[in-house]
Amino acid sequence: MIKESPLAPANLGEENGVRSAPLTPTMEGVAKSNQADTGNYFQAPIGTHDVLPPQSQIWARVVSVFAERANRFNYGLTITPIFEHAEVFERIGDASDVVRKEMYEFRDRGDRRLALRPEGTAPVVRAFVQHHPTPPWKVWYVAPNFRYERPQKGRYRQHWQIGAEALGVSDPDLDVEVVSLAAGFFLALGLGKTRLLINSMGEPDDRIKYTEDLRKYFLSSGANLGEEFLTRVKENPLRILDAKKSEWQTMIEGAPQLSDYLGDSAKEYFSKVQSGLKALDIAFTVDPRLVRGFDYYTATTFEFVSDDLDAAQNALGGGGRYDNLAQEMGGDPAPGIGFGIGMERVVLALEAQGLAEEIIKDSASLDVFVVDGTDDEVAALVVNDLREAGISVDRSYGGRSVKAQWKLADRSGATYGVMTGESENKNNSVAVKNLKTGEQVEVRREHLVSQIQNSKETKR
Ligand code: AMP
Q: In 3D, which of 359, 361, 382 has the Cα closest to residue 428?
């Protein structure tokens, strides 16, 4: 479970404003507005959450499964700043909600216009343009993102994404590789029911013609759908296609489809991606209405959807090609493709599938709890020897009675309790109790590490 902060108050009129996070002289302004929301300084701000043990074990597992897989695909970890010049994110699209309404933008004390990272691709492309690595540049990341959204289950003001990007090459095989990196990640976590939707956004010219026709269609048949609809039609009619509003659905269903506007080269590229996915046995559905939130996408786009989540937040992750973004950031032309997966949503899907508890149980790996029966240094030495030998060990503190320590040992979930005692000290030994069976034996100190290690091996 994610420990949630209280949801935002009902009155979020500012959410509809052009810029919800006010431009303030320093970050204190952002902090103050959060405090005003909650009326309580000492709670995590609205829309953020703490991830605490034991649930954080799920996060650790998700990251380690991804990291291992990324390593196998030869993607290297990349870490970029949590904030960038606001212009970096403005390149992802002035018409996107993320940039227009949701960015945590501020001026620092040197009057620089900065923004907390709202998404993962732009900083990676900025780093590519800045450092000129040799293509193909294949990287992965895990990082928090910030968006001033209306908080609800699966939608937060700080959320984490784990993702990958591959820059410098345009090749359908690379699109397939990137999709398969993500698809296999869900499988490895046990989320085999995750559905993959794919589409092609075509080349920029294809999209310009399509956007014009879409705008005409929406204006002619949706004039009575209200101000928000008309604003979106004006600013970016593509963003209507994936809107969830029920009263817009009939209109959306009748809309022209981008696939009818693709030029020959975009069609050929998309068909190669599809045959590549089929060859790898990666199931997918072509969804002609899949348009992702940012303006930078070209050609292949994709999304992973889980039916375990509420329909409005059912995307576990998504991504696509962005062949012009590097150039828009002042770099040489360099195509790219990547995806971001929402960590919180993956955790929600694991919980819905009943897999989260299993991960927590699996990760509860305390081998030994040491009970100090002599109040000298021996217990600390035993703890240290075991830990340095790779065995997980805990102990109690504050000079508790032996009885109280055994109680803690029982509650700790450890496999063994190891006690130092006067008579054992004389024999240079310790008492080892199997906490599951109650069986107790005396073991010489020099054999303790190997004995525990052997028993761990046998358990495996
Ligand atoms: P995007 O960067 O908008 O393409 O989002 C990629 C993925 O991040 C989505 O599919 C979600 O799983 C997740 N995500 C996006 N926005 C949020 C949010 N506000 N809260 C939680 N997860 C999010």
A: 382
Distance CA(322)–CA(328), nearest Å, equals: 11
Is residue 161 lining ligand 1, measured as CB closer than 6 Å?
Answer: yes
Q: What confidence score (pLDDT) does residue 239 get?
A: 80
Evaluate: CB of 156 within 6 angstroms of ligand 1.
yes
Q: How far is the CA of 405 from the centre of ligand 1 (A)?
A: 45
Both tokens of 132, joined, read 């000129």
pLDDT at 4: 47
- Last residue of some domain: 338, 357, 376? 357
**255: in domain:** no
Distance 314 CA to ligand 1 centre (A): 10
Question: Based on the domain organization, do 410 and 332 belong to the same domain?
Answer: no
Residue 96: predicted pLDDT = 73
Instruction: Please state, in angstroms and as integers, the Cα–Cα distance from residue 446 to each residue in 382, 430, 443, 451, following that order.
Output: 10, 10, 8, 10
Q: What is the rounded CA–CA span in Å between residue 306 and residue 195?
A: 6
| Protein residue with least CA distance to atom 9, ligand 1 | 317
C-alpha of residue 160 to centroid of ligand 1, in Å: 8
Q: Give the DSSP letter string of 119-144.
A: -SHHHHHHHHHHH-PPSSEEEEEEEE
For residue 69, what are its two tokens? 């897989």
pLDDT value for 22? 32
In a domain, 250, yes or no: no
pTM of the full structure? 0.87
Atom 18 of ligand 1, nearest CA residue? 155
Residues 181 and 291 in one domain: yes
Structure tokens at 259: 């696939």
The CATH number of whichever domain residue 310 belongs to comes to 3.30.930.10
287 CA → ligand 1 middle, Å: 19
144 in the same domain as 10: yes
User: How far apart are alpha carbons 327 and 334 in whole angstroms?
Assistant: 7
Low-confidence ranges of the chain (pLDDT < 70): 1-38, 94-95, 293-295, 459-460
Residues 429 and 312 in one domain: no
Q: Give the residue from 297, 328, 357 where a domain finishes.
A: 357
State if residue 239 touches ligand 1 by the CB under 6 angstroms criterion: no
Range of the domain at 312: 3-203+263-357
Q: Ligand 1 pocket: which of 155, 185, 191, 321 to mutate (most atoms <8 Å of CB)?
A: 155
Using the mean position of ligand 1's atoms as its centre, give its distance from the Cα of residue 391 in Å.
38
Could you tell me which residues come within 8 angstroms of residue 337 by beta carbon, excluding any fewer than 6 positions away? 165, 166, 174, 175, 178, 300, 319, 320, 321, 322
